[in-house]
Structures are given as structure tokens and as C-alpha cells.
UniProtKB/TrEMBL annotation:
<keyword id="KW-0028">Amino-acid biosynthesis</keyword>
<dbReference type="GO" id="GO:0000105">
    <property type="term" value="P:L-histidine biosynthetic process"/>
</dbReference>
<keyword id="KW-0413">Isomerase</keyword>
<dbReference type="InterPro" id="IPR013785">
    <property type="entry name" value="Aldolase_TIM"/>
</dbReference>
<keyword id="KW-0368">Histidine biosynthesis</keyword>
<dbReference type="Pfam" id="PF00977">
    <property type="entry name" value="His_biosynth"/>
</dbReference>
<comment type="pathway">
    <text>Amino-acid biosynthesis.</text>
</comment>
<comment type="similarity">
    <text>Belongs to the HisA/HisF family.</text>
</comment>
<dbReference type="InterPro" id="IPR006062">
    <property type="entry name" value="His_biosynth"/>
</dbReference>
<dbReference type="GO" id="GO:0016853">
    <property type="term" value="F:isomerase activity"/>
</dbReference>
<protein>
    <submittedName>
        <fullName>1-(5-phosphoribosyl)-5-[(5-phosphoribosylamino)methylideneamino] imidazole-4-carboxamide isomerase</fullName>
    </submittedName>
</protein>
<dbReference type="InterPro" id="IPR011060">
    <property type="entry name" value="RibuloseP-bd_barrel"/>
</dbReference>
Amino acid sequence: MDWKSVADRIVGVIDLKNHVAVHGIAGQRHLYRPVELSRFASGSSSRTIDGDAIGLINHYRQRGIHRFYVADLDALSGGAVQTRRLEDLIADSHAHHRRPGEQWILDVGLNENVDADDLAWLLDLNRRSCGSISWVVASESSLSDQTVSSLAKTIDPASMVLGIDLRQGKLNVGTTGFAGSKKNDPSADPIDQRTVTQRTVTQRTITQRTLDQWVESGREAGVEAALVLDVSAVGTASGPAAIDCCQQLHQRFPSWRLISGGGCRSAADVATYLEAGCNECLVATALHR
């Protein structure tokens, strides 16, 4: 099995830090370095990327990939959204490389405290993109279990993707955690009774909460897409992760658009995600080599 056989199901990953495309490894963002393509991956010993995001996107395009996931690491770390750079990537100054039907998934750290100017920019970009952009609302960025419903008041839920951020199988949530948990409620319809590991962030302890609560908050807000990502597998070439979670989500919500990835080494690993019920699979490192 080669990459061409699954290219139409692959989402090429661009981690964007200070306008530069960087190589993510296990969520350790302080270790991220500009992306470089190997001679084999680029097809030419003279071709370099050196963190050029548009160059990386065009590399994916040459592989037959027409879906892209961009994580704005500046925004995800509490900084400003890279609005100009994101628009440049989507518009692409090398417009002749663009192909009809390209789709974009953007993660800019959305939560209910989104800046008014950023929200206005998002809504305007949505209008101009004619449905080609989806926005991640990630558990990692959440402030409460009301994050999704709060955003859904102004952002069309059809353009939202529920981000299920895992670390070694446990849900990763924002610094204030979730309120009003139904943890271990036997009457709940759980996807999984795994709970969030207690951790302290800025001297605040996050209370244990269930993965099911986060998924329910998305369903109740009208979201019908999810991105499941175990960050501990990202960039490690360790093989597929979060397969059990993907299978459970697909069984419970068979009509949802389901995206996952992390650890992919080959087209066969992509096929493993697809067999678990995923519609699409994120790939980065394996396509850089």
C-alpha cells in the first residue's frame, strides 16, 4: 500500500509558530523546529522547505493531498492569532498551485473568551471561504463545559470540529476544567469512563472529568465532527494511537465526520485509522521523509 492509495483521505498538517512551519513532537512545543524535507520526500536534493509553510502545503499538494490542518501554535500558547499568515496560506500567493475542493481545518485556540476582533475576522473568513474552512474547538483550549455552546451562538456549528485532545489516552482540558460533571454517572451514555488526570496549571488543580461530558457538550451544540488526537503520539512514528476512542465515537455517532491521526508511519497506518471509523487522517512527519 502506498500513499497515493489513501491521499484523498489524508489531511496534511502544518504547525505554525511565529509564521514558520515547525515539526511537532509529542506536544513538546518548546522543542519544535522548522520543518525540513528529506531528499526522498522532496524528490530533489536541491529543494528545501526550511519552515516555509506555503512550500510545505505545495509539497502535500504534489502528493495528491487537498485537505490541510493548521494549528496556530502562537494562539494556542496564549498569543495573538496569526490572522494575516493564515489568510496568506489559504489564499496562497502561488494560486496556480491551488486545486478545486481544497478544505482547511484551523485551530486557533477558540474558547468563550475569544477576542471580538478575532471573532469578526473568523466570521468574515468563513463568509469568504464558502464552506471550505472548519474551526476546531479543542478541549485543550476550553474554559468550561459551556465552551462549545457559547461559541455556537455566533459560529455556525456546521463549521465547527470538536477537538478531543488526549495525552496517553486521557483527556487534556483547559486551565479551569469543566463544571457540573456527570463523572461516573451510571445513567449517562458514556463513550468511555476514562477521566482526566489531575494536574496543576498556574496553581489551579483541574478536577477529574469524563471524556463523555466533552463529547456531549459538542453534540448538544449541534456539532457533528470531531478531531481525536493523542498528542503524545504526534511526530513519534510510534504507530496509530487513540484507535479505541475513534471506534467508540464512530459507533455512537456514525454520521459524524471523524478525523484522527498521530504516529502514522505509512499508508497502512492511515488505513488502520480509516478502519476504526475515521473519515480522514492527519499525517505530517511520515510525509516529510
